[in-house]
Amino acid sequence: MPKRVLLAKPRGYCAGVDRAVETVERALEQYGAPVYVRKEIVHNKYVVETLSDRGAIFVNETDEVPEGALVVFSAHGVSPAVHEEAAQRSLRTIDATCPLVTKVHKEAVRFAKEDYDILLIGHEGHEEVEGTAGEAPDHVQLVDTAEDAAKVEVRDPSKVIWLSQTTLSVDETMVRVRQLKERFPEMQDPPSDDICYATSNRQTAVKTMAPSCDLVLVVGSKNSSNSVRLVEVALQNGAKAAYLIDYAKEVDLAWLEGVETVGVTSGASVPDILVMELLKFLESHGFGEVEEITTANEKIAFALPRELRKDLVR
Ligand code: SF4
């Protein structure tokens, strides 16, 4: 067998990331630097470094933004408390929260109003779950581990619903849901899937190619939930090895020893230029043949945030 690369499609940028990154770029063009951004606009080192070079200033909290300045909220979403803090400091805000995260926020608000106990499946400390839980802190409990699912208590087992972070492993989430349903058989499902199309499509592509791969390389940053999940999905579905890398230069040549087929994919926050650099690197090490494995064609796009649209020259 010649050495070859299987290239997953879809991979890389999703519609929410594309919109969030363009929001910062257009804000810099429209209003000039600096543009403050609360948290990483998307979880990718290259994107954050590139935008920083152009004049974006990334901060952890709104109190680091000078009074009256412009701040962009990241794709992962923020809680109402963050909007209030920004208003108190008279900040001008542009909310680049992905509309699919906003959808989960609205579900949390709606079911809290109806006085449900909401079990939010997600990773403790992730910005997205902090934002979603912050919509209804008195009604939401986070379920991260199997232990959490075994311990969580609800007020009325006939009035419980589960929601989830958008970037989880589809399979592992269903394991957690089954575990919860054993304890709360009347628990309701979300009105529509919370794990977004981009997360599940990228996992499906990896599942398809993983059994044929000696090695899977996922381009993505360590704090990118959906990228980390792609490594796990590759290993769970037959790849002999899988690694997460930000850049081609991080590939350890020992990983390529005895390898005939390398699978390549990237997380939803990764620009394709980084994948192209990896393909060039692999070609220089004998992996010149590239076959794209297509499991879905994505056509979703989101309009820019309205706070920005109103100021843009048409
Ligand atoms: S991964 Fe999904 S939820 Fe997150 S920004 Fe992309 S489309 Fe939106």
TrEMBL record:
Gene3D superfamilies on file: 3.40.50.11270, 4-hydroxy-3-methylbut-2-enyl diphosphate reductase, catalytic domain
InterPro entries: LytB/IspH
Keywords: 4Fe-4S, Iron, Iron-sulfur, Isoprene biosynthesis, Metal-binding, Oxidoreductase
Name of the top EC class for this enzyme: oxidoreductase
Annotated cofactor note: Binds 1 [4Fe-4S] cluster per subunit.
Active site: E128
Binding residues annotated for dimethylallyl diphosphate, in chain numbering: H43, H76, H126, S224, S225, N226, S269
Binding of [4Fe-4S] cluster, residues: C14, C98, C196
Binding residues for (2E)-4-hydroxy-3-methylbut-2-enyl diphosphate: H43, H76, H126, T166, S224, S225, N226, S269
Pathway: Isoprenoid biosynthesis; isopentenyl diphosphate biosynthesis via DXP pathway; isopentenyl diphosphate from 1-deoxy-D-xylulose 5-phosphate: step 6/6; Isoprenoid biosynthesis; dimethylallyl diphosphate biosynthesis; dimethylallyl diphosphate from (2E)-4-hydroxy-3-methylbutenyl diphosphate: step 1/1
UniProt-listed Pfam families: LYTB
Reaction equations catalysed: dimethylallyl diphosphate + 2 oxidized [2Fe-2S]-[ferredoxin] + H2O = (2E)-4-hydroxy-3-methylbut-2-enyl diphosphate + 2 reduced [2Fe-2S]-[ferredoxin] + 2 H(+); isopentenyl diphosphate + 2 oxidized [2Fe-2S]-[ferredoxin] + H2O = (2E)-4-hydroxy-3-methylbut-2-enyl diphosphate + 2 reduced [2Fe-2S]-[ferredoxin] + 2 H(+)
Annotated positions binding isopentenyl diphosphate: H43, H76, H126, S224, S225, N226, S269
Keyword Iron found: yes
Functional description taken from the UniProt entry: Catalyzes the conversion of 1-hydroxy-2-methyl-2-(E)-butenyl 4-diphosphate (HMBPP) into a mixture of isopentenyl diphosphate (IPP) and dimethylallyl diphosphate (DMAPP). Acts in the terminal step of the DOXP/MEP pathway for isoprenoid precursor biosynthesis.
Cited PANTHER family: 4-HYDROXY-3-METHYLBUT-2-ENYL DIPHOSPHATE REDUCTASE
Entry protein name: 4-hydroxy-3-methylbut-2-enyl diphosphate reductase
Originating species: Lentzea flava
The encoding gene: lytB
